[in-house]
Amino acid sequence: MPVPPARDPSPDRTQEFMQQLEIEFRDSATDLLRQADVSIEAARLAGSMSSEDRDAVYRIAHSLKGLIASFGHSLASVVAHRFEDYLADLDEPGAMHLSAMQKFVDALGDLVDGTVVERSVNAADFIRRLPSRPTGDLGDIEARDVEVLMVMPNDAVSRHVARELQACGYRVTRESNSFKAIEIAALTRPDLVIASGILDALSGIDVVSAFRAMPATQYIPVALMTSATREEVAEDGLPDGVPVIRKGQAFGDDLTDALTQVGIL
Questions:
Q1: Rounded to whole angstroms, how far apart are CA atoms 265 and 261?
Q2: What pTM was computed for the model?
């Protein structure tokens, strides 16, 4: 006797299952945020945070980013990403850094517990209110309300470029995943996106072309960083008018020209 096909769960059962998953997500995220709270408070009482404790908070931010993204909370995922990026390269955070870290934790807490509803806020404004790496880390530099998204592998080159941009007072976010970078940019509306020529599934030219093609991102300024010449990338399909930043000796001049061309220097 043939076995009847399994029936899909009823809508009520499916909804109940999804609600249970959401509850488990909030519990897990809240627990991670509580751990970060404890570490930050302990460091505040001590006057500074050790590099080991900073690494522990960094791991929490990384875990939060993955956990939140898996449940489709786009804005909270970007906030967690910014938190992780803020902590990167910090050696021993002082009082100023601890205050900024607490703001990230509080912002994530508001998003996780529903105090702030993602669809009811302007995501770009929400992100721009988050702390950026203090300009004091780079000497006497005036902070500017300019957001730059770097779509590059996480290597020495990207860290050098980030340092140069931070030296201009810009707020810098790094993302190595090309598809994720497009999502972040559509949500946060940066003032400039710099894509490396060689990425993952997409090339830098693919990313730049995608930005130019989509209504949600077509007005976001983009630039391509490459070791090739302008003529070579033009033959490969780089859209007209996109600044090219060449690696090597031309880097400084090309970066200055690109920032001037998009109007943020």
A1: 8
A2: 0.79
